[in-house]
Amino acid sequence: MPWWSPSPAPPPGRPPPVVQATVVSVASSGSQPAAGSAGLALAGGETAAKAALPSPPQPPVPQEPCIKAPASFPSLERLSVDEMRNLKENELIMDDWILELPQVQAITRKLKEAREENSRLSADILSHEEEVSTATSSCETCQTMLKERLRSVEALSCGRNEILKHRSQQQATTILATRAQQADTQAEEMLQDALSGEAMNASALADFRKRFVQQKMEKHWRLAIKAAS
């Protein structure tokens, strides 16, 4: 006979309580919050990590399938009528009996494993808290320096735009014409020096031709830019 069978029954006028059984869905490790300070530390560590790095997409949380109610309860079949009545009318005894079921014990073990895994993850996150804090501070410093450099670049860009705005088209045309004339003058001087000088061998003649053509090309491309502007 079970240990709880001698328990006294409640008064006859008391209606029997309704016993409700709640099926608990056990999530995988990391889905249950750790208790106490470990849970607070876990939340703080996650906040610091999210501030330092972009959050990757979270995978879907796997859910434990709901356990079907067994078709029979062999332990109930061994009880007498009085024991059954006592079990039905005493809520604490009913809870103890439910906790002894193999299905409930399996869920309890999974809950324990999930809490232990959460505790391990909390300790691991706490061990990296200083590293995350240092990385966050370094990132903020780099962002401040980058903003300062951007302001400097914007100021230089504005100054450049002002300079370009005040440069007239006439000035650019005059500069191009002057430099084209200089290139043409240098080419003519090279030609006069070659005609008045001594006879040149093949190597000297090739070098003269190269320099003369280069000066003429500089003249013509500057005049072409002047005409297109």
Descriptive overview:
- The protein is mainly α and 229 residues long.
- Helix content is 69%, strand content 0%.
- It is built from eight helices and no strands.
- The chain starts with 35 loop residues before the first helix and ends with a helix.
Concise account of the structure shown:
The chain is mainly α. The protein has helices at 36-52, 74-77, 81-89, 91-99, 102-127, 129-166, 169-196, 202-228. Helix 7 (169-196) packs antiparallel against helix 8.
Oligomer: single chain
Regions with pLDDT < 50 over 5+ consecutive residues? Answer: 1-43
Taken in chain order, the helices and strands follow as HHHHHHHH
**Radius of gyration over C-alpha positions, nearest whole angstrom:** 46 Å
Question: What is the number of beta strands?
Answer: 0
Q: Name the average pLDDT.
A: 75
Count of helical segments? 8
User: How far apart are the first and last residues' alpha carbons, in Å?
Assistant: 111 Å
| Helix percent band | 55-70%
Q: What would the principal axes of the Cα set say about the shape?
A: rod-shaped
Structural class comes to: mainly alpha
